[in-house]
Amino acid sequence: MPTPPSGWPIGSYATYEEAQRAVEHLADNDFAVEDVTIVGVDLMLVERVIGRLSWGKVLGTGAVSGAWFGLFVGILLGLFSGGGPGIHYQPILVGLISGMFFGVVFAAISYASTRGRRDFSSASQLVAGRYDVLCQPRNAERGRDLLAKLAMRPSGSTS
């Protein structure tokens, strides 16, 4: 069962990279980083539209993904089929062609079932509005002090 994070906030950052840098600074100063947690706050699901879908793109993508799966199955069948040592190419060819066929069929059925309601492709990403660094109370004060020193340094400084 997932458990909520515990601890006191010792820093808050706009990006995950900044929060990582803060924890790295703590680790470089012999801080007990086992007591530290990075928590993404104000989560958002961001869907970036990549492009428009067409029957050609859908069927082409289905053929390519089906071909990869068919090639994998064909190679396995070719390696373990009877008839002497070595690899047999007929199962590979059959797997490749079958995979392409079924990939195209399943892609066409899937795209047709949307009836034009989703004629674009996209990529989804979970993003946080900010990243809080939490620490167990026994070390929180020292952690805050170390992160305050980090904040006072010029941003390009690494030591």
Give the gist of this structure.
The protein has 159 residues and is an alpha+beta fold. The chain is 50% helix and 25% strand. The longest helix has 26 residues, at 55-80.
Q: Can you describe what's shown?
A:
The radius of gyration is 26 Å and the shape is elongated. It contains four helices and three strands, in the order E-H-E-H-H-E-H. Helix 2 (55-80) packs antiparallel against helix 3 (89-113). It has 159 residues and is α+β, with helices and mostly antiparallel strands. The chain has a three-stranded antiparallel sheet.
Low-confidence stretches: none
Q: Which secondary-structure class do the elements indicate?
A: alpha+beta
Global mean pLDDT: 90
Helical proportion?
A: 40-55%
Highlighted features:
about 160 residues, three-stranded antiparallel sheet, 3 strands, about 50% helix
